[in-house]
Amino acid sequence: MRERTPDLDEQLDRLEGVCPAYLAKTIHFLRKPSLFWLRMTAGVLLIIGSLFWVLPIFGLEMFPIGLMLLAIDVPLLRGPVARMIAWIENKMLGVIELWQSVSTRVRRNTQR
Fold this sequence. Notes:
- This protein is mainly α.
- The protein has one domain.
- The protein is built from 5 helices and no strands.
- The protein has helices spanning 8-18, 21-30, 36-50, 62-71, 75-111.
- Helix 3 (36-50) packs antiparallel against helix 4 (62-71).
- The longest helix has 37 residues, at 75-111.
- The relative contact order is 0.13.
């Protein structure tokens, strides 16, 4: 059976819930409907900036952030970006679980 496709608003709400307070406030602020032009401009600039990721100031992480900003207003991007956020969340949870299990094993071995 296929899993339900994640909704972008749900994913962004979850992202706000797990981020530090200053970042959650920024995400909440940027999601206001009146900030359409700010989101579009920032999203396009972030995507363009990610093309120069080999330069010290720019980074490849700018691409997904730009896509997230654009997806709020571009319906065609909402589904793929919501799935991307869900995929990243699942991978990060797996990394956290792995890190916790390794650190627990290391602590047990050093206590012996």
